[in-house]
Amino acid sequence: MSETYTHKDLARLCGVSETTIKSYRRKFPTFIPVHTDGKPIRFKKEMGDVCLKIRECFEQGMSINETYKLLKGQFQEHRRKDAPKASAGAGTPAPGVSKEYLEKFFETAGQMMHGMAQLATAQARADKRLEKVEKALEALITAEDRSDEVYSALLEHLKGAPAESSKPRKVVNVRGREGTKTYTIEESAKPASEPESDPEPVREPVAPAQEPDPAPEQKPEAEDLPKPSETFMETPIVIRNEQGEFLGVPGRIALRGFIEAVVEQGKETGAILSNWERRDRSWAFVMKNAEGRTHELFFGGTKTPRGNLVVLFWRLDVDGEETAPEALQEFFRQVKDRLVG
Questions:
Q1: Which residue in 198, 215, 314 sits closest to 255, CA to CA?
Q2: How would you class 328 by CB atoms within 10 Å of its CB: exposed for 0-12, middle for 13-18, buried for 19 or more?
Q3: Measured distance between the N- and C-terminal CA atoms of the chain, rounded to whole angstroms
């Protein structure tokens, strides 16, 4: 190899591009002087060590000032006699560029890099907060499912537990023909605003009347029946096709809107009863028509591959028998057409 190097030779030696070698020259011109002015420009072989050291410093994240100080301690600077002496760590300014301009430039560049670092940090924190929100929503749906189970169990327990009488009791002594007898009677509660009325005179005790038969069990009101939470009802509804892809309704229709469309469609076919029932970890919407036929729609909360929380319509039973996936998809399509048509 020749006793001198070109830009290409230095780039091959350092494993970088020729453009990078030229940037080394612009930053540290006094350490990489030109040996010959012909074409191509050539440099002494010692410049290979200088370029290798500059590359090593930049790979370690050192600044231009830090690299300049290191080069000054290991290599000789080559200054022209008519060139002004640069301050330590600043290099030789280009012709027409003042020292104040360079200082302002490096200050501005440093502020930009600091701002970019802050932006990257803020982005990372935002990603973490978004991940926490998604986990919190998922935990909320799980907690609501569990609370529904606890509420249903508590409701069943309260139905079977006898209610204790909260009426005040009063002991009364009654004097009759056969002597004095003691009775304990319950007083009816009166509002605090009503005045006390005079008690009726006590008469001879008589045989207690036969208690009437208990009233037939009343059907619970609609608001007492178990039903999904508001969050569950406002979550977008989807189904899964044969390829396992999630398909929703245009406009991200929620479960509430889907059920309203199902009820409206059911009325047209003679549906007479509809209610929600809890089935393991799923909710079932049950509809019955005048002929006694039932349709049961099963829904459960899940998460899409993109991390979106949705309600999956995963099963359709007719008269207690599970239908094929094709029937479920056709039912979903009919309701979707009603919603978007």
A1: 314
A2: buried
A3: 80
Q: How far apart are the C-alpha atoms of 52 and 127, rounded to whole Å?
A: 40
pLDDT band with cut points at 50, 70 and 90 for residue 200: very low
How far apart CA 184 and CA 189 sit, in angstroms, is 16
Residue 68 near residue 83, CB atoms below 8 Å = no
What is the rounded average pLDDT of the residues 95-112?
Answer: 74
Q: Express each pLDDT in 7-25 by its tens digit.
A: 999 999 999 999 999 999 9
* Distances 26 to 31, 33, 64, 97, 231 between C-alpha atoms, Å: 10, 11, 11, 13, 63
Q: Which residues contact 112 (CB under 8 A, 6 or more apart)?
A: none
Q: What is the per-residue DSSP string for 177-196?
A: TTEEEEEEEEPPP--TTSPP
Interatomic CA distance for residues 212 and 215, integer angstroms: 9
The encoded tokens of residue 100 equal 């104040």
CATH class of 4-79: mainly alpha
Measuring CA to CA, how many Å separate 255 from each of 56, 239, 258, 297?
Answer: 61, 12, 5, 12
Q: Which residues are registered as beta bridge partners of 275? A: 286
Radius of gyration of the chain (CA): 44
Per-residue burial over 286-323, b = 16 or more CB atoms within 10 Å of its CB, e = otherwise:
ebbeeeeeebbbbbbbbeeeeebbbbbbbbbbeeeeee
3 state SS of 320:
coil
The pTM (predicted TM-score) of the whole model is 0.38
Across the range 92-104, mean pLDDT stands at 63
How many other CB atoms are found less than 10 A from the CB of residue 267? Answer: 13
| Number of alpha carbons in the 13 Å side-chain half-sphere of residue 136 | 6
